[in-house]
Amino acid sequence: METKIVHRMQGWVGRKDRQPVAVDATVHEDDGTATDVRLTDISEEGCRIEGDRDFRIGQRVQIAIPDVGRVSAQIRWALMGSAGAKFVDDSGED
Which residues lie closer than 8 Å to 67 by C-beta, 6 or more apart? Predict the structure, then answer.
């Protein structure tokens, strides 16, 4: 049995309960890379991202969500094929 280790960004201890969803979205990175992903849970504060792309803890991205638009986020934890993001304002402040 394979053990997965979750690495988390220092200083982020909790989050509000998230609602399970299955929403197709696109993550846009600063270098222009756009990756199709699926959001599998979401709250006012963040979401879980699943897809073929591995993200880096601390990385800032834009997530294009249907019927919502683009939201700024920061990757707070990451596994192969999955990541947790916290929504942030455009100035980069939490």
Answer: none
pLDDT in tens, 51-93: 999 999 999 999 999 999 999 999 999 999 999 999 998 764 5
**Phi, psi (rounded to 5 degrees) for 24:** -75, 135
What are 21's two structure tokens?
């969803």
Q: Can you name the residues that pair with 84 across neighbouring β-strands?
A: 48, 77
**Can you give the three-state secondary structure of 47-90, one letter per residue?**
EEEECCCCCCCCCEEEEEECCCEEEEEEEEEEECCEEEEEECCC
Residues 6+ apart with CB under 8 A from 15: 43, 45, 46, 84, 86
